[in-house]
Structures are given as structure tokens and as C-alpha cells.
Amino acid sequence: MGLMSRFKQIFKPNISDKKQWSGKSFDFSDWFGKSFNGSKQNILENNETIFSVITRLSNTLASLPLKELKNRQDINDNVSNLIRHKPNENMTAYDFINRLETDRNTYGNGYAVIERDFYNVPRSLIPINPQDVEPVINRDDKSLWYHVTSALFNIDAYVFNQDIIHVKHITGASKYTGISPLDVLKGALDFDNAVKEFSLGEMKRTDSFILKYGSNVSEEKKQQIIDMFKKYYESNSGVLFQEPGVEIDKIERNFVSADLKNEDDITDKRIANAFNVPLQFLNASSGGTFSSNEQLMTQFVQMTLTPIVRQYEQEFEKKLLTSAELTAGSYFKFNMNSLLRGDMQARANFYQIMRRNGIYTTNDILDLEDLPESSDEYADKLFVSGDLYPIDMDPTQRKGVTKDATTKDSKEVLGNDPNKQQ
Questions:
Q1: What burial letters (b/e) apply to 280-299, b meaning 16+ CB within 10 Å?
Q2: DSSP 8-state symbol, 376
Q3: What's the pLDDT at 2?
Q4: Based on the structure, what is the number of domains in the chain?
Q5: For the chain, percent helix, then strand, then coil, each to nearest 5?
Q6: 289 vs 125: CA distance, rounded Å
Q7: In terms of domains, do 103 and 226 share one?
Q8: Is the pLDDT at 129 greater than 80, yes or no?
């Protein structure tokens, strides 16, 4: 079944709140609730801090390995190829996730239409502009649909919720659209821009002076002083003599660099709070310290990435997998282990502990380090320290253990048996 054939045209959304946008001679209802002149996009392009945060989140999420698994085993099928390699003809999997996450952090919502083949199997994932989508509820069965209007693609249709990927920030009561972090930060960004514009104006302003004459200064002398001062002011250099009876005072500027720095620190904290990222990711001069980079990354993974990743995983599972596949144990998973591996010494200690306690095999460790797997016959065997035997090896075959070592009243170490003949 094709994408367009799945669009529903038989009902309209509740537009009671759009009546003020239409009349007898005009109809701007399609503009309702949408940003004009690319205002949010302009913030992303003109604010380096916002750009930095969204870039970090989008790039990090797009860089994480994403797999379709079934009972912890990799699955390679048409759906897994969509999310791992080629979601559509124009994008890579990295570009697709990056685009969705950028839209989610810019507009509060990221959308992608699922195009299916004749057998209802997903064959492409196509991102769409969040400003062209509006969630609506079917009045008959209360199901969720998405009203898609795009002048670029000449589309005005309704898409069932199962045929559109929707990732978002938190939503308000009885709403299905996420709240844009840029809307939350509007007041803080407006104030920050005002402070910067004022400071820039103060820095560009030329120096001003106050000339005071004494009562004993003649008119001819006043004119000479004015001419001399004009020449100095125009050249912005030279020697200015302050004669008796004349006072020259400079009007101080209101720009204070420390005030601008304090404002930047406050804005950075508000941005970090809105996007739920550690303040250190904004290269802020303050914001707490961590004893190691591992602690910083742990906070980032646990507090920031985990909720985002879980939303993507559940959205992909709900929209791309069938009920039978879900029941059989299929699921999607982002691998975030690489973000928590730590430095060389910490990783070596961790791998040693996991290896000697029979948890990781040699190939497990090689996979985590993105190294080729070993073809050695013991590379996929679990070992335990003792010192290091195959986990399925008969304990009586281990060095220094007698054959009756497993009985309760036997001696486990050779040479300690009092009944042994010398």
C-alpha cells in the first residue's frame, strides 16, 4: 500500500480556535501556530551557544550505533537496513537521526513519514518540516492523525499516527506537540540580545567631553579653545593643553565588561537547564566540577541521553515493527557503552575484571574496542580466574586439585593430605 493511499481525507480537525485567521475575503488558517520568517531557524544560525548545544546533542545521538535485536542477537532485514544504513534515497542513517534531533531541539518536534510497500513493510523514512505538521484527533474514534500541509511538495493530507515517526520534547496537558526549548528561552535570549546590543553600542560610541570655562575667559579665548579641541577630536590624537580657567571632563561610558560576562554566565545556565545538558558542555567558566571526565559523561548519559534514546527506541518499535515481531522479542537499541568507556587505564581495569570473572569473552572486549574479532578457538569462551580456566572445564582437571576435591571431607590442595604416603 502506497504512502498517499494511506492519507485520510474524510474528516477535518477542530478549527474553532482558527476562526480569527479566516474571513469572507481571506483565509490564513494554514498559518495558525506556525513560525514565520524562520524565526527559530534564525536563532539557531545567529546564537553560537544554542548552535553549540543542538549540534552536540544531534551529533552525539546520530553517532551512536543503532541496531535491531531479537533476544540480544543482531537482526538484518529491510527495517534494520533503514535505520542503520539508508532510510531514504537522499540521506544516510547519520543524516536522518541528526535531522530528527535537530528539529526536535529547534521546534520541539521531529517528524518523519513512513512510506510502506504493497505488503505494508516500511521501505523509506522521509523527514518533513515540523512547521508543516499539526496533530489532530479524529472525533469518531479519538485516534491520533497528523495534518500535513506542504506547499513545496503540494501535499494537504492526513497521516495516521502509525505512519509517522514523531519525537518531541515534553508536552503540555491534552497536547500532542512538544514544547520548543527556544520558546522556553525566549525571554532569556531577548534579554541577552538587548544587553549585547547595548554593550556593542557603548563600545562603538565615540568619546564625549564636557568643556567648562571660567568667568575670566574671553570670547576670543573660548573660540581658540573650541578650535583646538575640534582639531584634537577630529584626529583623535595629539596634545591637548588645559589652560587656566578651562576644565575638560570626559563623559564615562556605561559599558562594563564584567557585567557582560555575568550576563553570559546567567544565559549559559538557562540554556543548559532548558536543554538538560551539563553546564560544562557550554564551556562555561562556572558550573561545578567533576573529579574525572567519566563522572561528567555519566551525568550526561544518565540525565540527558537516556530519556532521549528511550523515546527514539520506543517510537521505532511502535511504528516500524509488527506485533508479531515485538512478541517474538525484536527491539531497537542504541549502544551508549562507548560514551562510558573512560580512559585507557580505566577500560583496561574494567575489562580485566569482566574477563577474570567469566562475564566477557575475548571477542566481547574486541567488539567494545571496535577491533576485529579473533578466530582463536578460545576467543568466544568464558574464563574464570584460578588462574583462568574455561568456565565449563571439570574442576578436578584444574592444577593443584585432587579428583575427590569436590567432596565435602576431601583435601583440595595436593600435599596437604595427611594420609598420603611419602
A1: bbbebeeeeeeeeeeebbee
A2: -
A3: 46
A4: 3
A5: 45, 20, 40
A6: 41
A7: no
A8: yes
Taking only the tens place, the pLDDT of each residue in 56-112 is 999 999 999 898 988 778 888 889 999 999 999 999 999 999 999 999 999 999 999
Q: Is residue 282 classed as helix, strand or coil in its secondary structure?
A: helix
Looking at the fold, whether 161 and 284 belong to one and the same domain comes out as yes
Q: At what angle do helices 48-63 and 93-107 cross, to 10 degrees?
A: 140
Residues 173 and 213 in one domain: no
Q: Which of 251-265, 293-307, 311-325 has the highest mean pLDDT?
A: 311-325
Specify the higher pLDDT residue, 252 or 353: 353
- Virtual torsion, Cα 217, 218, 224, 225, nearest 10 deg: 20
Domain range for 242 is 208-252
Tens digit of each residue's pLDDT (9 = 90 or more) over 342-386 = 667 777 888 888 988 889 999 888 877 767 788 888 888 998 876
Is position 399 within any domain? no
Does residue 367 lie within any of the structural domains? yes
Centre a 10 Å sphere on the Cβ of residue 213 and count the other Cβ atoms it contains. 15
Give the span between the Cα atoms of 48 and 123, in whole angstroms: 37
Domain assignment present for residue 155? The answer is: yes
Q: Is residue 293 part of a domain?
A: yes
The set of residues, in sequence order, having a beta carbon less than 8 Å from that of 96 and lying 6+ positions away, is 83, 87, 88, 112, 125, 127
The answer to whether 317 touches 332, Cβ cutoff 8 Å, is yes
State pTM to two decimals: 0.69
User: Which of 226, 252, 278 lies at the terminal end of a domain, its last residue?
Assistant: 252
The residue that leads in pLDDT, 298 or 84, is 84
Regarding whether 244 and 174 lie in a shared domain, the answer is: no
Whether the per-residue pLDDT at 35 is higher than 50: the answer is no
Q: Are 200 and 207 in contact (CB under 8 A)?
A: no
Q: 236 or 38: whose pLDDT is higher? A: 236
Question: Are 195 and 310 found together in one domain?
Answer: yes
**In terms of DSSP H, where are the helices of 47-173?**
48-63, 78-84, 93-107
Which residues lie below 8 Å from residue 147, measured CB to CB, with a gap of 6+?
13, 133, 134, 135, 136, 157, 158
**Cβ-based neighbours of 112, under 8 Å, separated by 6 or more:** 87, 96, 100, 125, 126, 127, 128, 164, 165
**DSSP assigned state of 251:** E
15 contact partners, CB below 8 Å, separation of at least 6: 29
